[in-house]
Automatic annotation (TrEMBL):
Residues 102-112 have a biased composition (Low complexity). The lineage of its organism: Bacteria, Pseudomonadati, Pseudomonadota, Alphaproteobacteria, Hyphomicrobiales. It comes from the Bacteria. This is Restriction system protein Mrr-like N-terminal domain-containing protein. Residues 82-94 have a biased composition (Basic and acidic residues). Residues 82-134 are annotated as: Disordered. It comes from Bradyrhizobium iriomotense.
Length: 134
């Protein structure tokens, strides 16, 4: 598994591109144990960006106990994921059906489910704190 590619893929899956370290570590653990498919996929992506260094290239920034993907990081990841389409005419690409939401397409279902559950728990915790404060 390529660590730097995995970090980019995890961060881009969050709505604002920011994840606290605990979430990032948990998502990394899930992907690291998800099987050879993920490891092979990240190796293929890493081969498309052999000199990738997420911090020195300003693809990821550290803030407030977590990491956030930058616009440059999103662009580099898109380039790495782009597939050459020499066999397809450009017209077909524009006529194609829209793909599923980017965040949902990038991580396995188990990770998306876990993220949704975390959001629900955070929301419930905030609501309890607000109710307690009033």
């Amino acid at each position: 598994m390529n660590f730097q590619v995995t970090v980019l893929k995890i961060l881009v899956s969050y709505p604002d591109g920011f994840a606290v370290m605990a979430d990032l570590k948990r998502d990394m653990a899930i992907l690291a144990t998800s099987g050879r498919d993920w490891a092979e996929r990240t190796k293929r992506l890493a081969a498309r960006g052999p000199d990738l260094d997420i911090f020195s290239q300003a693809l990821v920034e550290r803030l407030n106990g977590g990491w956030r993907i930058t616009e440059k990081g999103r662009a580099v990841l898109e380039l790495m994921e782009a597939r050459p389409s020499e066999a397809e005419p450009e017209r077909q690409a524009s006529d194609a059906e829209p793909s599923p939401p980017a965040a949902a397409a990038r991580l396995p279902a188990s990770t998306r489910l876990g993220r949704d559950q975390r959001r629900q728990r955070r929301r419930a915790t905030r609501e309890r704190a607000r109710a307690k404060a009033s």
